[in-house]
Write a structure and sequence with these properties.
single chain, 135 residues, alpha/beta, Nucleotidyltransferase, domain 5, five-stranded mixed beta sheet
């Protein structure tokens, strides 16, 4: 009988160098081809100082108040939420460039405030909001 000689098992090693090369090539590829977005932010610079004769002489704002009981007043006149835009448009007919100041008390319902804000924005009326605390 013949004797079979067994060769010693050589340990199998995995060569990691080609795999690392491929990973680095992919990394470089994705970095180079990535799109860099330029995010827009809010301009936080204050407006320039007013030095002319026309400073602060613009038309007075139309004040829309929403109090704690959700009653709505346009320049001191009580109105309904559905008629706020009509009342504002009547005042803007007299002063076309006047803006709207939305004065909201702390306990006012947000839904009413948002509805007024959306109506003004949809009709191109400039609006600013002011929160008022009742002491």
């Amino acid at each position: 009988m013949r004797k079979r000689f067994r060769k010693k098992d050589e340990s199998a090693e995995v060569n990691m160098t080609p795999m690392l090369d491929i990973v680095f090539i992919l990394l470089i590829f994705f970095i180079v081809t990535a799109t860099f977005l330029s995010e827009e932010g809010v301009d936080m610079r204050p407006p320039p100082d007013c030095t002319g004769d026309d400073c602060g002489t613009g038309p007075p704002p139309i004040v829309v108040q929403v109090d704690n009981e959700n009653q709505i007043f346009v320049n001191g006149t009580r109105t309904d939420v559905d008629r706020v835009l009509a009342a504002v448009n009547r005042h803007r007919a007299e002063e076309p460039n006047s803006a709207v100041l939305l004065e909201v008390y702390d306990e006012a319902e947000h839904g009413i405030v948002v509805q007024i804000w959306d109506e003004m924005g949809a009709n191109g009326v400039p609006v600013s909001i002011q929160r008022t605390r009742e002491d």
